[in-house]
Amino acid sequence: MTDNPSSSRRLFSRGSWAETSRVSTILRKETVGGVILLVAAAAALVWANSPWAESYFALRDLKVGAEPFGLHLQLTLGHWAADGLLAIFFLVVGLELKREFVAGDLRDPRRAALPIAAAVGGMVVPALIFVAVTARVGDGALRGWAIPTATDIAFAVAVLAVISTHLPSALRTFLLTLAVVDDLLAIVVIAVFYTDEIEVWALAAMLIPLAAFALAVQRGVQAWWVLMPLGVATWVLMHESGVHATVAGVLLGFAVPVRRSATRSTAAGKVRHEVGLAEHFEHRLRPLSAGLAIPVFAFFAAGVSLGGLSGLSRSLTDPIALGIIAGLVLGKPIGILGTTRVLASLTRAKLDSSLRWIDVLGVSMLAGIGFTVSLLIGDLAYGLGSDRDELVKVGVLTGSLIAALAASILLLSRNASYRRIHQVETLDADHDGVPDVYQTRQD
Predict the structure, then answer these.
(1) pTM
(2) Could you give all domains of the chain from N- to C-terminal order, each with its CATH number?
(3) CB–CB of 248/235 below 8 Å?
(4) Phi, psi of 100 (to 5 degrees)
(5) Bridge pairing between strands 263-265 and 63-66
(6) From residue 368, how far is each of 145, 175, 374, 404 by CA, in Å?
């Protein structure tokens, strides 16, 4: 019995117009944040290798805070950025992930399976490559196995903005969802593999403000003077427990109800989407995350003294740096594209007619841009400011740069095809605000 082509499953087929429009808005915001991130990282690198380098490291290691009631809240500015500001980033990740799987297109298990499987493949293969390269180093080098497994969505989207490619909406959605799932898996890795000691009392006490926060948002409370103290208390107790404090951000994001958006017709005959609470919080917090939290973290995390060309060449020959570079540049595209091809074979699914496998390869290479979470895991694996932490920074920055350049070259070569696809996708002959392609039956 042969399959009916019209009913065969399609990979990277278009989702709904509402979801595509929402993803496009998110990517525009992430583009701005990515540009700010690049500027912050570049400033850190220049300062750390200038005659005034000592002042940069002194600023990063400046201790701020206090220790009230025995709480360990006197941290360096670098730690405040990694533990505190990144909690805002992971709060947005939690909101985005919950919305995707409750009210987004990915509530359909068939659509969710592809980015989840690709994210897993894109983490397993880089980790295996890192382990293979550093297996003989010893002395705890393998603690960094998770460093090349992360994808930086802000950095990746910033590259897309620079090369001005008309990436098809289905692939842009895939890249965003892949990175969000990637971030969730990274948080699980951090909580499970990079937590040495746990203070049970603090972890148990953390559940009190978290439950109060969940109760408040379930009742529709939006007042910052109610939610912020509860969120801060959750973060403080999570930090005190020994589990990385950014996990608190994800838990707080998961606590916010999605309240699936409803639609209604207005007097003008148009349809208006009511914004759910999770989407409302995400809309308010994403600029803070992309415009402040991530760039400040990048500024304190990316500064590495290269020691001139000779120092850079020595760093690039170290197995730890080489393992990270190989994991990002080779492991990510191999893991993501390979998993996607295997999934296509197992399900006998076909690539959407508007795309080619080389397009999927380009997105997979973009996913090799690891920055924010990779640097965070490097700090946790080897210690902020340690010799190996410096190697991590060299490896992450070099690997991300190579992945960005390689992806840019490939995507630019496909730019003409993308432009034609983009023109078809945005055609709106009846001027109702919804592109015509979203008003036809999808295969």
Answers:
(1) 0.83
(2) 12-194+244-263+273-427+435-439 (1.20.1530.10)
(3) yes
(4) -60, -40
(5) unpaired
(6) 15, 11, 11, 8
